[in-house]
Amino acid sequence: MHHIRLDALDCTIILDCTQGAPPSLLYWGAAIGRDVDSAAVAKLAIRQGMHGVADVSLPLSLAMEPGLGHPMLQGFSAHREGRDWGSLFEVAKVEARENGVGIICRDERTKLGLEYAIDLDSATGVLRIASTLTNYGDAALDLNEMPTAFLPVSAHLTDIVGFTGRWTQEFGRERVKRGSGTYLRENRSGRTSHFSYPALLLAGTETNEASGEVYGLHLAWSGNHRLRVDTLTDGRVLAGMGALLFPGEIRLAPGESYASPEIVAAYAADGFSALSRKFHTHVREKLLRPAMRAKPRPVHYNTWEAVYFDHDTDKLKETATRAAALGVERFVLDDGWFGARRNDLAGLGDWYVSDAVYPQGLKPLVDHVTGLGMEFGIWFEPEMVNPDSDLYRAHPDWALEIEGVEQVPFRTQYVLDISRPDVAEYLFERIDATLRDHDISYIKWDMNRDLSHPGGPDGRVRAAAQVHALYALLDRIRAAHPQVEIESCSSGGARADMGVLAHSDRVWTSDSNDALDRQHIQRGASFFLPPEILGCHVGPAHCHVTGRRLSMAMRAATALTGHMGLELNLLTERQSDLDELAAAIQLHKAHRALLHDGDLYRLDTAPEHLAFGVVARGKGEALFSLAYMTGDAQVLPGRLRFAGIDPARHYRLRLVWPQHWSAVKAPSLIEQLDLGGKGAVFSGDALMKAGMQLPHAQPETCLLLHLAVV
Ligand code: GLA
Description:
binds alpha-D-galactopyranose, alpha+beta, 30% strand
């Protein structure tokens, strides 16, 4: 037996890497004493054969390949012209990595090599697994499926939390009981998708934000995927995920390799929030660029919901002037500046500044914006083309299609095959030239349709190739313009995974700027992504997507805890609202360093509230948000129990938002303790254990409470 043990502060994994046998994960969970021998853990796992199933307990493996002979589950699947389908991988070699291990496997029967790179971050316990398949045979290999890995999890975790949604309702959570057989989520949209976020959690019945065991797995990939949890008939439970491949999509010539996307996984013994903090640290330290981490995230103004396609340089200049006066630091010009793009029917692909709308070019607007001390950002949707465009008229063969099958209509646009070098070159040249010609420091990179017919000119599937080409194009632009930040947007939040975040700087969370929707959406996104990369904008009073009217106080409170921005018409909003907005921007800036670097604690509350806090790393201060989503069930709501602060220190508690608080029936605790003024001091222990009685407030109110160590 050859066991490899990796330890983090609160987590241990033990891999069985016995030579000549398939590699498997023997243990993944709470830290096991360093003096405990891995062989003892293996002994405790000895299983027997049973009547009605095999005479021996079948081994599990990381690949769950067919040669194992499992009756219910097959993961890895490949063949050569219908033969060589029965792979059984054997560990050939184990190599040490800096924080992990490389496992090199071979199957001499089918002439395949399979390598795993497994790393465990010793501080956070974040586990990363990637796998690479190599064809050592002398004929091509068709790969049907290669989940990155299967990870066994303890059967006492009875709940599965999946992440699902739709346009303007992203990051919804669905908690279901794990049954027998397979829990499956598949995505064939060619992008990360709204409906199947590439992640899942396995938790105990009692697990909540602050306690209970939970495992989280995320697939760092912006394309088709398959996520599964299998409860085998023999009682064992496995979670697996990987890219979903279409027929014939990956054909490896002799000597060629296929690399699976990485699984980023973590275990927490103390609830969902603790798990999220591990993922946040991973995103911050491993994915985001250090230079961008170091720079405060500028408050945005985005033109989309303000003007849509109605671009007018004078009005935009006036808007920019007003935005700067409110404290905005970056002005982003959204869709409509190029080609014949006066609506969403035409012009996509023609990345030349429109003479009709900008007769003097973009320079006067860019100069005006930068002259006001703001950065200038611009929208592109590089992967797409309108049939009514010069680009499509010149290159109809550049679009993905299935020959003889009509495209599904989707925002009147087709998808370009950006894995073609000529297409990628055209897009790079256009984006590069736009960035060179103007003082632009930000790109909103959009992607607004599914790849419903992802066929290339040779008739083969180009879906995975498209994702790799996207990452390559993003990297090429980054290399040429390292100071330019890139936002990943896809009809709102349909491309907000850890794969694209290795090549971009923030995500657009949702096209819904409705603050009530946003409280839920941002909470869902926060399971994996830290607040500073979530674009959170203050929309118009009359929400365009839901038709709801919400106060500025509510809208601003909801946007200011993420990467704050505005997306409303500053020429038509009420002055009193704009004054309040300026105050919210000031408040955001005052707490930006805390919000964008602190530890997130989502709180369990009554269903009519949503609450969370961000606590500074040294626990010297914290900002908590409590949203009254609907009316309270009783006359007065319950208490807010703070979390994550130091029980042994004292904090000054102050209500810092809304700017104009007035109790429905005064005096509430807020007035009696002067929380809106100089505040009151309490021990961290009392704030966390006894909690603070919440005042009665009308629905659609959001309180922001600040704690500072005294
Ligand atoms: C998508 C984005 C929006 C906006 C429009 C422009 O829907 O999510 O924010 O950029 O495209 O067409």
